[in-house]
């Protein structure tokens, strides 16, 4: 899939560049495309320097939480719920703790760190799977919840915004929280419908109602805030929550007699390795996106969508953020490249850049998640996993557009 996407970017760019050269006499398009490859290669290194620090910090903190027993505590608390949602997984099975840790990494926006943990969880779930080549119900639910990516603290997106010079990187905290909640709820309900999960079971219904009431109360609170206060409130809440989680991990670790410094260093080493391995992918995708934009191909496509939106009398500012939304189901690195490109082109705090950041945080990379997670355990039949995950993606994109017009429109 990634091979086709990456090659497709260059082929489409070549066609668009030839059209501009032969049709409009713009021979400078090729120089612009070559310049874009060097600019994006340099940008990749700049982004990677900050990514090293971000992943190192948060994987170090997650290791403290793991050794302090917070992950095991979550697994025990969620055990009755998992027993209803994944009845084929026995209580106390190693997969429960790994799924919990994977969700914790995703909640912190550390999608790259969540992947190796998720692969371990899939292997454990495969030991319970009666079929060698068809995904089990538990694996599908785990995949869809990963694809919907409930991101409570999108620290990676904060990092990208900071790298591009945002005055307040956490400005998109609340919009992402609302959009990712919509995508996760849509994905979960889709799987529950197909798998006939008993949502009326009190063990399932009570947590769902509690989350729904909390989100409704939160939205009600936001609706009473003046428009000018929404963005500052999002920033304050995001920064306070981020620091509170850091402090909680450290205090609980110290209380449980965990050597917090040594544990942090142990986890941080893993973060360093994960970040280092991402550099080739980041260079590849950013350069491909740079060539695509410099060729004019992206502008041609967006102009067509913008014309259709204007014909329907819709506000067209959302169109400039669509590249991130369109490639997100296929490639996380491509979507990340589109996000960074949108920030550079329109300004880090422009409406398209804020919307693109919200879309980036609202869902995961559906086809990548399905291909990597199922491929790691040799499964060829995804069953209803892709359909449910794409429904979650669509809900997340629509919610992102609506929320950003509410907050930043």
End-to-end gap: 36 Å
**Alpha carbon gyration radius:** 22 Å
Helix content: over 70%
Instruction: State the major sheet.
Output: none
The shape is: globular
Strand residue content: under 5%
Number of helices: 17
Oligomeric form of this entry? single chain
User: Uncertain segments of ≥5 residues (pLDDT<50)?
Assistant: none
Query: What would you call the structural class?
Result: mainly alpha
Question: How many strand segments?
Answer: 0
Structurally, the number of domains stands at: 1
Keywords for this structure?
single chain; 409 residues; mainly alpha
How would you characterize this protein structure?
The chain has 409 residues and is an all-alpha fold. It has one domain. The chain is 79% helix and 0% strand. It contains 17 helices and no strands. Helix 4 packs antiparallel against helix 5. The longest helix has 39 residues. It is globular and about 70 Å long. The model has no long low-confidence stretch (mean pLDDT 80).
Summarize the structure.
Helix content is 79%, strand content 0%.
List the helices and strands and how they pair.
Layout: H1 2-24, H2 29-67, H3 70-85, H4 94-107, H5 111-126, H6 137-148, H7 155-163, H8 173-195, H9 202-223, H10 227-255, H11 260-295, H12 297-311, H13 322-327, H14 332-346, H15 351-362, H16 366-376, H17 385-408
